[in-house]
């Protein structure tokens, strides 16, 4: 199988540099890293990809069974690493991707040598002594709205893309992004993401890890950032002066500084 | 107006002017501020972190909230349902950042009375003089009607999907039933006839695979076997029903009296009785015969009769082929009393009897119906394959049928009955 085509793999930056894999979370695709890439390209070999079912991945490779668990997505990461024969790469995962990276590191020892977790969350639903930010009812409501609001989620992005007359290249770029792709696949990713519980997996992390959180993040609140930091021995936690769930877009300067300083110190 | 330049305004014009002045005054009343507050859509300005800095009365009314509770205290995300919040963070906000604007996204706002109101949200980022993002301007449109319409579409889509699944299931069931029926019209395999080798092929042109041609080989008594091949008028279910009646009538008639003319006469009576008065007169053409192998000589005696059917071809071991004429036979089932012509022949080792329907001879070999394959060509083709065992001959004929492509637009049945040549070892030992 052509993994590079299946996962729409892009390799760029400095071919002699250490490999840095940028992994998008639930939402868009590798375009999310557009403001991060320039900060890394000079010194690192940067690998971008789309999970199957997102962005410009090969939709034919999608399987509801495989992607019903984060392991399926981790398998994508392992296969990308193997296809490029990456060793000791730094895995930069946004949101649920940080957890996918932890699973992938366990599945393919030696491939991933450090983690950068951007707004990670190992579990979205509150639990005894754990504040995930959402109640079971919240997530049920989300999943139900995904089921019922079929048109809203699938067709909503079309006007966005159509409305890009003054920047046609952007429309072209986004045309096949998650936002416009098969809502059935997005639904699977949403279900897998928001019902996941990877808290126990964090304990297995033995490599250098940087945890980045935002001051105000509805999806991954401060408590979650603290939990991840405490669960991973020796990890570093940085709270970015940023709001929302995507600091690499809303506060690219601070995010890039934190990442590059961490990479330089490895 | 142009043509009145310089004229005194008439009294009617003065009235009009008063009215338009009043309208204009009302327009002036509708200040930009008034327009903002009471616009038929919600307005919202937030800081880049989502904190609400300004909101209009329309939106506050929809929310059922006081301005003081919202401005500076809430963020845009706080107005949304959980699904909306997640959508905002995972899709809306990133795309807004990347594009600077985003339009007509379907979300739901929470109302203080517990209700949810579907809205369409558009946002644009206002940049400062140095290009840095300053604030986000958002318009919120009432999408309740649109949502109702979408749900109607969704219901329609689901109903269509259900109907499609049902139709597919029905179709599968029908195909199964058809397959069973089809087997009742054509034998799965031909029975073993001592001293005779048989082969058959059936090409159906009907999409339901309910053809109008038929054939069969079956035992009559200890020493004789019956065979027939024919063509009913028409195609599809009605033709299939006629085929079924014909097939079982011939089998039963042959058991009663194996004489070919007698069997066809019985069939004629049955079909005429069934169809002549039905308002849908139907008939068939058929060759019916018996095979009587002689174990001593290795030869097979053939007795046959035909009703309105093309004559069978005898293919001899010496490489010749000829028609076995059955002239004057009438279509079966048309008249209450019909005459059928009998013929006999003997098949020696290496000889073969070839029965066929007119699908093969009437296959088009040119652009239109003026150039058909024809009787002579078939006879020549049969002669070319003389001496071959029936399966090989049928295989060659199948290849011929395939070569017609679209030119073959009718059902075609082929039945070959041959006497095997003793193999050289057996022959030398005799």
Automatic annotation (TrEMBL), chain A:
GO molecular function list: hydrolase activity
Occurrences of domain AB hydrolase-1 (ranges): 20-257
InterPro entries in the cross-refs: AB_hydrolase_1, AB_hydrolase_fold
Keyword Hydrolase recorded: yes
Stored SUPFAM superfamilies: alpha/beta-Hydrolases (SSF53474)
Key words of the record: Hydrolase
Family: Belongs to the AB hydrolase superfamily.
PANTHER family linked: ESTERASE-RELATED
Name of the featured protein: Alpha/beta hydrolase
